[in-house]
User: What shape does this take?
Amino acid sequence: MDTKAVVHVGEYSRGGKSRAAESVKALDHDMHPKQKMVPGGILEVENDFAFLFFSSGGNTSDFLGDGLDAWWSERKDVFPQAKRLVINLDNGPDCSGRRTQFLQRVVEFSDASGLEVRLAYFPPYHSKYNPIERYWGGLEKSWNGYLLDSVETILKRASFFSWKGICAAARNFTSFYPKGVTLVGKEKRALENRLIRSRTLPWWDITIKPMQVHL
Assistant: This one.
């Protein structure tokens, strides 16, 4: 699971190439875009299916949490026997092993889904080894030749992109995601009691058991 750089919505050049007979006319500056979209995604590494989610409301822990909830809601029937979910992430500020709001959202997800969740973080400066980074690279190369001039166009181009012969699902979140949401005091201590941190890598390897199993 990972997010990607903000996409400016508008008739802007993204340095790509088009297969059209004539070059696509685009603006060469994006100094004041009217709208920006944050891409987030979950890549299922065993079957190469990508679930993408977008928001103009900001890149936060709750944005990622909503993405995880939406992915499972739509894909849980594909994994009827699943008991455990391993999520590979980088150590971004909105999903790190120190980010209390993100960890709280994963705890809530674990309780709601009944899944044991293991968060496995890549070391600093090694996020390029996360398989979804290669997916993002392919998607950007694919859509850079088009004018991403509306939210509908972004969702369309994202869902049309084929990765290893499989097209993605793309969803738009309309919620506003305020920054700076965090847990303190009793809430933070209660959260920490739900986390099983690795003794050797406490910030990079975290297991969360659902409440019915945890007790």
About this structure: The chain has one domain: 2-214.
